[in-house]
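New to this. Please check this protein:
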Amino acid sequence: MNLFQIVVEAFRSMMANRLRTLLTMLGIIIGITSVVLLLAVGDSMKRFISRELEQLGTNMLFISPGGDRVRQQRLRNGAQPVLTIQDAAALNELPSLSGAAPVLQGSFNLAVGNENAAKTVHGVTPAMFKIRGWKIEQGGIFGEADVRASARMVVIGHKIADQFFYKQDPLGKYIRIENTAFQVVGVLYGEGKQVDGGDLSEYVIVPITAAAASLVKMPFPNSVHYVVAQGKSGGNLLDAIEDINDTLRDRHHIKLDEPDDFRIDNLASFAETAQKISAGIAALLGLIGAISLVVGGIGIMNIMLVSVTERTREIGIRMAIGAKPRDVLLQFLTEAVVICLVGGIFGIVLASGAAAAITASGKFDVTITLRAVIVACGFASLVGVFFGFYPARRASKLLPVDCLRYE
């Protein structure tokens, strides 16, 4: 028999025992569905994390004062680590950076008429809009002259605009922040979580000097909570970190044998860690699906052993008319692989339907990739070969005389 005839015989055997074949395939269908769907979820999760990190900017650096290892030491020496607006201005001149901007922030009460709510207010310079990629939906932003004048201007997210100025044009109107009136000059475009945990659509942004004068009370003049810097596009971020380190140590008069009084957090390292975690989770999900596939394979082995016992006389007749042991081995092995592949096709269809349902819900975008389909089909074939080999080999070892006398 050639391979085509063997495959045809395998399908005939499956159709002769439809219920048993269906029950045998059920384990494979569930296993393949699990493998394909979980691999798709893992890939979608990695893509989601990548998109979010790209939106935040992987060449971003966050410089904050102090550090756990130096805080107590410097406090004992009568010094407290601080960053200032002047530090940010010095960093902004570094050729390895495309910009640097200081930040003051705090939670304050916002009020318009009878509407009020507690929101986080960010005091920044105009450079922050370029560094963070913030875009304006309406109006504009404050300029350097407004910062120098401590102008009471505010740029708000669109959810803030909807909350306080529902169905009104917010531009030119005033919001009271802790009883100090700030004029709305712009509305931010977009929404989504930012690196500080806030939602862009709920941001309240004022000139940093206005925040220092009217809102945020810092213990030292011109001090800030942190500085955001951005490495040059295509540049080496490690060189930028080294330049920041040298500049701040020089400005803070830190001796060679003294530790830094600031900390530099690299968002790229966060991105790398997040990618490793998501890759590990994706591998774990695939392993969970593979376990269910192995369980289905064990079911195939059991059914194939039963099939060998039931078809003992058939095996004897085949051998009596010239079939060799390898022909019998190939026949039963092909049946196992065909069962797994057919079950795999049904599993892929079910997984595609489940992925489409999840995507349609709008909560998560799950896409069945070609890689997941290939992996699933490969797994199905391997399971068929692995778990079908022992029953097939057992059938091929039977003696024709014993088979013909079997009742």
Remarks:
- Residues 75 and 81 are 8 Å apart (CA to CA).
- The chain has a mean pLDDT of 79.
- The chain has 14 helices and twelve strands.
